[in-house]
Design brief:
The protein is mainly alpha-helical. The chain is built from 6 helices and no strands. Helix 1 packs antiparallel against helix 3, helix 2 packs antiparallel against helix 3 and helix 2 runs antiparallel to helix 5. InterPro entries: FliS (IPR003713), FliS_sf (IPR036584), Sig_transdc_His_kin_Hpt_dom (IPR008207). One of its GO terms (cellular component) is cytosol.
Amino acid sequence: MNALSNRAMSQYKQVGTHVGADSADPHQLIVMLFDGALERIAIAKGAIERNDIEEKGQKIGRVIAIVDGLRASLDKEQGGEIAENLDNLYDYMQRRLFEANLNNDLAILSEVADLIKEVRSAWVAIPVDVRQAANG
């Protein structure tokens, strides 16, 4: 396992496990993190609608932890400007999630979900040969 694999697996294990995580490659682990964040945002939205403050706080807290894991897995040396831009975007997402939690704001949760979907879509579009070269 290379450095990216180790970082991705470590971050994934910190924010929650999923069946198949141990056999997933780093690319798949990041997709799993995106999917986990989106799932928890959806649950948090439902919790806000039900006025379930405890569950809302827990789920938004988990999304913040996932985004933190995504930030921690960035390789700023090799990733250059793209990694720096993602770091800034993840920082923005975390601040917006705190605000959504504070204000029970469904629109902010939708905004963050849309941002995650965009990054996920770009991540999934990375060609297989590029992924394999990165996994070295």
